[in-house]
Amino acid sequence: MNTSLSPSLSPSPLPATGCHRHAVTGVSAASCASGAGTRGPACMAARLSALAAALLLGGCASYFGAEVTAYHQEDQPLSGLSFRFAPAPQQAESLEFQTYAGYVRRELLAHGMKEAGGPRRDVDVALDYMVDGGRPVSYSQPNYAYVFQGYRQVRHDRTDANGQVVSYWESVPIYGYDLVGYSTYQRTVYRKQFKLALTRTQPVPGRPARLYEGTVVADSEDGALNNAVPYLIQALFQDFPGPNGVTRQVRVETDRKAEAKAADTKPVDAGTSDGKPVDGRQPEPAGSGAAAGK
Q1: Over residues 58-79, mean pLDDT
Q2: Is 0.85 topped by the overall pTM?
Q3: Rounded to whole angstroms, how far apart are CA atoms 129 and 268?
């Protein structure tokens, strides 16, 4: 399993949520509608508050946070180029690779590239992907309780048998919610990485053959790489090819996962593979690195 990622990268560790719940106090819209509540401005405010809360909850969305870094030749447009997937030897018969290639294929086509119908193509497409073994992360959470907070003095007045007002004081205990300590928890966070490289089959003299290379990483408590890959690819292709040499934070709505899974996953012809992984290293033995997947 490849664990060469830099520990300095700190993408969003968990999917964020866009949901906000608002409490409505005072007169309820239900009581206004039934006639049991107060009528007038108070009821109008209650109805508007209920409507606003319904609209907010109906628009809730969850997000997947990732960190994207891309390098490309800015004067070499990718749109219009033909491509073909070039799996590494350990990926050639992998159904996992075929699935991920289907997601990438759909994005490349959406960005103006064309899939080659035969061996002649402008660009080879290479993929690399991995998940690490996880690392423990500790965090604390405040604890609150209904506790004794002291006494307050309450004055009482009474009239005695002679008609005189007599005053006396009573100590009354006070209770309320207060911070009573912290609880410490530990969870395991896994880092996922997905790489994409586009390389010219016939380099332009004096120019690098590599046209594009992009890396996207994300952390989560889910150790399954396959659950994250659709989101990682969507993040990688946001504003594709993106700014050159810049690392940026990207958010993807998680409700797009079902749409991504519907991508075309037709078999990839491994006959054009050059046997080189995305990062230029020598092929790893079967059962390791990206081919192992986990």
Answers
A1: 87
A2: no
A3: 17
Which pairing describes strands 210-220 and 62-72: parallel, antiparallel, or unpaired? antiparallel
Q: Residue 183 has which token pair? A: 């609880």
> Could you tell me if 90 and 127 are in contact, meaning their C-beta atoms sit under 8 angstroms apart?
no
The answer to whether 116 and 80 are in contact (CB under 8 A) is: no
Containing 44, the helix (H) or strand (E) segment is helix 41-58
Measured CA to CA, the distance from residue 192 to residue 294 in angstroms comes to: 10
Measure the CA–CA gap between 256 and 235, rounded to whole angstroms: 11
133 Rama sector, left if φ>0, alpha if ψ -120 to 50, beta otherwise: alpha
* Cross-strand bridge partners of residue 186: 138
Token pair of 84 as six digits: 């073909």
Cβ pair 235, 221 in contact under 8 A = no
Q: At residue 123, what are phi and psi to the nearest 5 degrees? A: -135, 140
Diameter of the chain measured on Cα atoms: 116
- Cβ-contact 102, 262 below 8 angstroms: no
Per-residue pLDDT tens for 106-130?
A: 999 999 999 998 889 999 999 999 9
Strand partners, 129: 194
